[in-house]
Amino acid sequence: MKFENNLAFAEALDQADDIKDLRQQFIFPKHNHKEFIYLCGNSLGLQPKAAKEVLNRQLDNWANHAVEGWFDGDEPWMYYHKELKKLMAPIVGALPSEVCPMNTLTVNLHLLMVSFYQPKGERFKIIMEGGAFPSDQYAIESQVRFHGFDPKEAIIEVFPRDGEDILRTEDIVAKIEENRNEIALVLFGGINYYTGQWYDMETITKAGHSIGAIVGWDLAHAAGNVPVKLHDWDVDFACWCSYKYQNSGPGGISGIFVHEKHFGNTDLNRFAGWWGYQENKRFKMEKGFVPEAGADGWQISCTQVMPMALYHASLQIFEKAGFIEALRVKSITLTKYLEFVINQVNIELGYQQYRIITPEDFNSRGAQLSIIAKEQGKPIFDGLVANHILGDWREPNVIRLSPVPLYNSFEDVFLTGQALMKITKSILK
Q: What is the rounded CA–CA span in Å between residue 159 and residue 180?
């Protein structure tokens, strides 16, 4: 498509958008009665208008049924997570039995590593991307220490080549092969939070399995953003938060994936709790843990009904959209258009003030573009916020902008480019 940097073109793209009406399902933040152009769904998604209704319904269930709400009413809490499982599974390319909503992301990462990081002999190392989100770094460091290893010896980090911003798949595969006899676990983020790079998950998973390692993924920035096929790619485990692209609210409930090939593996360690016990015998209160079949067997504490309700509100919008495949088509064009208008700013300025470090190939990125300003990056970001355009700033020098196909428009992107041009000229005059 040949893009044009004018309002009429952006409006025409919006008119042709088959899912444009989904925008009306969300609440946009306002300041001085003016709505923000919200480009920060990579950090926290917008609130669905249905969130209050869904949450109030569960509050009413609590009010009307009290403890009997676990088994009475239209949506008994005992089984509420099963409805979510059906809607979660298509988003990550899984079977419903392979996913479960529970806890929060880093808690789930720890719980899954209890099962899937099993160092033995010389095979004790974990390989990950350099510059992973700090929570992943801290979780992995503490896990290897728990097993008695020094993180400096047990963790292999793969960094971009000198002078480059993103990782090459061949370098990741080569590093896996180089350490083939020592790696117990390959654990990457699906999309890097800083650069916005979407790693070649299928290729990396195959590379990890080829040397006999377990492969897991943190999908915090990938789930609900790009199409992943966890089951078909033979991924061993994964987890994600739901409050970014899946709009479940701040600190919203997390999700896990465990491939069905592991369901019958009795050698897996796990930290057990009552809610992960075999469901049809749970209330017999018997001694000796027997896990529920599937991913549900990794549950520990009882269903978090209110956070699940908020997640449910957003998942139903994904269902209306045709899940991630339909959203991805729009997302690719939205992000390409954002790339175009940023480059148009550079052209009008006559030099490269803005450098996009996110891969140009749409197969290697999601909705996020990470941008480095040659000069005055933080004042320019602050200027965008002052002009009701909300992305986010990541130290030391990156502006992240993420047009989300559920609720962002092509007009949003065009107006962002116009504001960026105006602010840049004002600050750098």
A: 18
106 is in an annotated binding site: yes
Determine if residue 379 is labeled as part of a ligand binding site. no
242 has binding-site annotation: no
Q: Write out pLDDT tens, residues 15-46.
A: 999 999 999 999 999 988 899 999 999 999 99
∠225-333-239 over CA atoms, to 5°? Answer: 10
Closest alpha carbon to 239 in 400, 94, 48, 119 = 94
Q: List Cβ neighbours of 209 (8 Å cut-off, separation of 6 or more).
A: 215, 234
Element (H, E) at 376: none
How many angstroms separate the Cα of 75 from the Cα of each of 53, 60, 69, 102, 280? 14, 11, 8, 18, 18
Largest separation between any pair of C-alpha atoms in the chain: 74
Sheet holding 155-158, edge to edge: 99-101, 255-258, 237-240, 214-218, 183-189, 125-129, 155-158
Q: Is position 110 annotated in a ligand binding site?
A: no
Token match 């355009």: residue?
389
Per-residue pLDDT at 40: 98
The answer to the question of whether 74 is labelled as a binding residue is no
The residue among 18, 29, 81 whose CA lies nearest residue 242 is 81
Residue ranges in the chain whose pLDDT is less than 50:
none
- Cα dist. 101→190, 241, 256, 276 in Å? 19, 10, 7, 12
Tokens representing 232?
């078909």
